[in-house]
Write a structure and sequence with these properties.
Carbamate kinase; single chain; 6-stranded antiparallel beta sheet; binds magnesium ion; 474 residues; alpha/beta; binds aspartic acid; binds adenosine-5'-diphosphate; 8-stranded mixed beta sheet; VC0802-like
Amino acid sequence: MSHFSDRLVMKFGGTSMGSPERIRVAASICIEHQRSRPVTAVVSAMSKVTDLLLDTLKHAESGDDAKVAANLRLLETRHVETCRSLLPESRHGEVTAGLRQIIQDFERIAGGVAMLGERPPRSVDEAVAVGERLSALLMAEYLTVQGTPAQAVNASGVIVTDAVFGNATPLMDHTCARAAQVLRPLLDAGVMPIVTGFNGATIDGRPTTLGRGGSDFSASILAAALDAAELIIWTDVDGIMSADPRLVPDAAVLDEVTYREAAELAYNGAKVLHPRTLAPLVEKKIPVWSKNSFHLEAPGTRILPSTGNHPGARAVTSMNNVALVSIEPASAEINGAHVMAKALDALARANAEVLAFTSSSYRQSFCLLVRKDELNRALTALESTFSLELAHGYLEPVAVDANVGLLAIVGEGMRGTPGLAGRIFTAISREEVNIIAIAQGSSELTISIVVARDGLEKAVRAVHQECALGREAG
Ligand code: ADP
Ligand code: ASP
Ligand code: MG
């Protein structure tokens, strides 16, 4: 029988599921932890599989049958070979048939996309979840032959979401009820659920996904729904680091961060966590570990409601897929506050997220940072809201700068650290990188700086060094 309070949820990312060898390691981690407490695993698709599926749908849409067929072959070969490498011959027939059946679901949807010549978001969501269904099946079969009974579970039957395809939000009450119905009996019977990351379904069963990188979010949703004692997110770096190690070679692993710091880091571009991962855990204060499945001895990063005192900045993140939209009243007589309110309202209704916002006091011009892939939506919304003002020349034409990047410096300990912002700006200017806009929330948890795109990486390294966040400096 599983004990209510000691359940463990563990999530394995794409690289941690990326080959037979990695799946063996992931399974051995599960087996090890299952000795002391009941484990629920959440798995990503094998690395690059989600990209392959999305690419295949694009080719289907444009009618490129040869590319579709080639991609399907790649998909099948990768999983069938993994199956052969992981499982004894006696299981090959049945499991390969299971894999092929899942791939057929994908082919059916891709066929529909080809016929329609378009990719309706809900079909895309159903199709891309195939990557996770394949990896979950392989993991469950492997665990079972290793003597740890396990069962693949499609999260479309567990995680209940709204109908925002491609970026759905969980409905927690329904999800808790489903988790009790679907997962608890397995746990009580000593069977480890291997749940697909990334996907869910609406209450009436339409498949959804939680956004790219969403398996982290799946895991935290399930940890909350199961009232887990802990969540461990297994990835390919030693934990949450002071910067993206691909940009900053001497980035240091942080031993602990607060929920708020982790959420700010993720929201501002640290790919190591999906931006919404922390939200479901806050209420129940479920602690999270970010750990490296390639380096089991490394302690990892602990993410907690609160931590010890860490003065100053803790980490620097960046985003390069953003654009700056500027709005400027043509005369000082225009009520700028009114214009800002209308602009923010229009963007909220268009579901275009404002990543940073700054305004100047006299002319009441202001600028907003949005994601590039939401830019068209944002512009359409603004231009229709302000159609009259623009037509009468009360507002200058909406200006867009797509050659920008966002840099964010995060740390609870920045609050009340005098001179920190000045040092950061000086460090960026020393690199001759142009600072375009600056924003800081009143909590002083994050300083956001918009810089010229081609100076972004340089600025990240300069700030990292100025704040002495690196390994040598630490
Ligand atoms: P997974 O497939 O396990 O979900 P991801 O590729 O989504 O892994 O996230 C891990 C990657 O995030 C790392 O390989 C690293 O390059 C990148 N990353 C970006 N910023 C950070 C950061 N601040 N700390 C750690 N990793 C980061
Ligand atoms: N496989 C999905 C993606 O690549 C979800 C994830 O890996 O978290 O976006
Ligand atoms: Mg990820």
